[in-house]
Amino acid sequence: MEQHSPRHRPTGQYAAADARRAGIIDAALVLFAESGYLNSSLAKIAAEADTSATVIAHHFGSKQRLLMAVLEAREERTLRTFGRLHPDSGGDDVRALFGEVLALAEYNLTQPGLIQLYTRLSAEAGDPAHPAHAYFRERYERVVGSLASVLQRAVDKGQLRTGIDPNGVAREILAVSDGLQVQWAIAEGRVEFVELYRAHLDRLTRALTVDGVGLDDRKGAGRDPA
Length: 226
Known about the structure:
The protein has helices at 11-35, 42-49, 53-60, 63-81, 94-109, 112-124, 133-157, 166-186, 193-208. The chain has 226 residues and is mainly α. The chain has 2 domains: 11-69, Homeodomain-like (Arc Repressor Mutant, subunit A, Orthogonal Bundle), CATH 1.10.10.60; 82-215, Orthogonal Bundle (Tetracycline Repressor, domain 2), CATH 1.10.357.
């Protein structure tokens, strides 16, 4: 029997397909942020992406899979940009970690659609039947675990006070960030998100570290007398 070599699409076709897929993800992000996942139909997303619902179904299969592609794309971009937040970063410098957390918050403000998307979806995903419920549950555990691992290594290194609860501190950091994001979104950007978050992380650093030095005060100026 004669065998035929598999047919491959030319490189240009792959690039076009990747560009179309990326365009659909970007359009979905915009609509999910503005209207929420439940109120964003494939037809509306298709119109935003200048394509058809059939094309979206071809690339993603369903709106639920498209949502997961949007969330995963955002997660990948975050980990590429902010390496210390990666679960396998192996870091133990708490001030460097908090600086990275703050930098991520500043970066997110340049893409307000992402903040609105997350505040809407995280609220909707409280329902176990929501397609993003498992994603958010797993994401919170992953982020908490990543932060807590750095905090624990800092305790072991002698940088942080003994007796702290790394897991609890990690959840506090995440809770303050999410809470400020919700307030920022509701106030349409009129909340000084970065300044408030920086102040919280600075107080936390002073309370947790053995030397009592804050984020921007490496030499110890402003420390309370022993």
